[in-house]
Structures are given as structure tokens and as C-alpha cells.
Amino acid sequence: MTEAHVESALVPCLRGELAGDERQHVERHLAACASCRAAAADFQAILERLATAPPPVVEPDWVRYRAELRARLGTSGEKPRAWWLRPLPIGLAAAAAAAVILTLAATREGRGPNGDLAALDDDALAVGLDIIDNRAIVERLDLLEDLDVIRDLDRLADTREG
Amino acid sequence: MEPSDEALCARVAAGEDAAFEQLVGRYQRRAYRLAWSILRDAEGARDVSQEAFIRLFQTAGGFAGRARFSTWFYRIVVNLSVDHRRKGRWWRQVFARGERSDGDGNALDEHPAPTVDPGDALERERALADVWAAAEALSPQQRAALLLQVQDDLPTKDIAAVLGCSEATARVHLHRALSALRRTLRKEPR
């Protein structure tokens, strides 16, 4: 016997699952190989034996099983709501609301938070300035329109204090 | 005419409790046995199979109908069983192994056999018990593959889908399972 045994194809062959070339190959092999024929016959007998009786499993009391299942469904069996219908955690909801308000405000000014490259340049410039120390002045300015004033904030503050 | 599993599942997705009850009635024993074949533990099998029905109730709408309902549902059972094993309970596995190694007849003595008529059926029953007792020594995948084949007559490609492996791997599981049973029953040297 020079041909390799078909082994794992035996069960699919017994069940009629093979087709085409594979089926022909296995059938040809079985016709020539006594060892695989014997294995196939034994497999068939074992499968038939197993199919005639269920495994000896300790089965639960099915009435109690169903009652337990209903109880579990009562506590955790709610169908999940679609994500857009689920309540948000308070923190996340607050953050989302703030983001919406800021976006609307920026849109009213004609610039989105990331609307265009020029806006990004202005934002970068504002970050580079020490505006926190001069908050009182900044609050009275229109940040997005008067960059010259912002650039000279330090000097303005010194002048005012001095 | 009885509605198909797939039709019942669609009705569960539409919120029909009676359809769910019908599916539970059809599958409770099979789901329990499948979980048991992997876990070898009555409590775990009950817990996992009930959880699988809860998942079915919650996600019936996710069943796309591309596969058989049984394949889809058994996949849930297998996944939950694997998770259950993974979650620890290692001590339970150790004890289960110990019980199995105590002797061939112990597990079957503890488990009530199916109803038997006396007389001629006795020898046949003993032969069946021998086969199932031999199956105790198989790996969980081999046992599950074997059970799905003899209990549900699932084709190998569906067994592969349930076990989450390739069809070639499912074939190997089945071949090894049957080879091991054959060896045990014939007392062949390994």
C-alpha cells in the first residue's frame, strides 16, 4: 500500500458528505486498503450504536429548569435597547451637551473648531500667548477678531497696572 | 404543520414570548447535553444552557438566517461553555478528572441510564453504556463533535461552524474521537 490512508475523510465518507474528486479518491482507497475498510466498518457501527441512545447525562428537573430560566429572564432578559435610546452616564451626557454648545457657538462666529487652516493658526497663536494671566482683559475682547490686541496683551496689562 | 426553528427565531425577534417558549422546549435537552459534553458538570451545564437561552432571547434579531438556527444557537452554547471553563473552576476540572480516573463504571453508576426494558435489551444497553463510558475519556471538542453528529445529525461543516474551527479540524476531531472509541472498545494497544 503506497497511498496514504484517508483517515479523517472516513467519517464524511460514511455520511455521504464527500463529492467529486475527493469522493472518488476515498472510494478508490477503500477498495484497495483493508485497514481503512475495517476502520470505516467499525466507525459506522460505533456511530449507529451512539445514535440509538442518548448519552447518560444527569438531566435536571425540566420544570424547575424552566422556572429558573424565567426568573433569570426577569432579571437580565430585557432586550437591549438600541444604543441611541440608552441613557448616557451623567458625565458623558454633560460632556456631550458642552460639545454641542461650543460647536454651535463657534458656528455662529462663522468658524468651526476645526473649520479651516486659518482658524487653526489663530488658535495656535492664542495658545502661545500668556492669556490666562490677563484674563480680565481677554474677557473684554473679541478673541477671534482682534489678534493685534492679543499679541500685545502683556504690554497692555503692564501699562494698566503701571 | 410545526413552524421551523428559523421561523420561531424570527418571531422571538419580533417579541413573541410563546415562540421563545417553543424554542426552549425544542432545544433545552440538546443545549444542556452539549454544554454537559464540554463541561462534564451538571450545575455548569444548567447555568450555561440557560444563559444561552437568555442570549437567544436578547439577540434573536441578530440571527441572519445564513446558517441553520441550530448551528447558530449551538455556537452560543459552545462559546458560553468555553468561557465557563476558562473562568476558572479549575478545581472542578481536577475533581472531574479524578472521578474519571477512578474507574470505568463510576460515572455511569452515578448517572441514571435511559429507561431500559429487561431481558434482551440488557446486553445492548451494556454495549451502549460501554461506548458512552469510553467517550468520557475524549477531549471536550471531540465529545462535542461526536454529540453534534449523533444527536443532531449535523454535517461536518456545521459542526465546524459550531466549534469555531475549520472543516478539516472538525474532521480530525471526529476521526480521533472514533479512533479512540474503537481502540477502547477493542482493547487495542495504542
Explain what you see.
The complex is a heterodimer of chains A (162) and B (190). Chain A has 162 residues and is mostly helical. Among the domains of chain A are: 7-51, no CATH class; 112-162, no CATH class. Chain A is 63% helix and 0% strand. In chain A, helix 2 (20-32) crosses helix 3. The longest helix of chain A has 19 residues, at 90-108. Chain B is mostly helical and 190 residues long. Chain B has a domain at 1-89: RNA polymerase sigma factor, region 2, helix turn helix motif (Rna Polymerase Sigma Factor, Chain: A). Helices cover 75% and strands 0% of the residues of chain B. Chain B has ten helices and no strands. In chain B, helix 2 crosses helix 4, helix 4 runs parallel beside helix 9 (156-163) and helix 7 (121-135) packs across helix 10 (167-186). Chain B is elongated and about 55 Å long. Residues 97-118 of chain B have low confidence and may be disordered. The chains are: A mainly alpha (162), B mainly alpha (190). Chain A binds chain B through residues 7-12, 15, 17, 39, 42-43, 46-47, 49-60, 62, 65-66, 68-69, 72-73, 76-80, and chain B through 15, 24, 28-29, 32-33, 36-37, 42, 45-46, 50-51, 53-54, 57-58, 107-108, 110-114, 125, 127-129, 131-132, 135, 146-147, 149-151, 155-157, 168, 171-172, 174-175, 178-179, 181-182, 185-186.
Helix content of chain B: over 70%
Largest sheet, strands/sense/barrel of chain B: none
Q: Radius of gyration of chain B in whole Å, from Cα? A: 18 Å
Q: How many helical elements of chain A?
A: 9
Proportion of beta-strand residues of chain A: under 5%
- Order of secondary-structure elements of chain A: HHHHHHHHH
Taking pLDDT < 50 over at least 5 consecutive residues as the criterion, the unreliable ranges of chain A are 110-132
pLDDT average of chain B, as an integer? 82
What is the SS-derived class of chain A? mainly alpha
Low-confidence stretches of chain B: 97-118
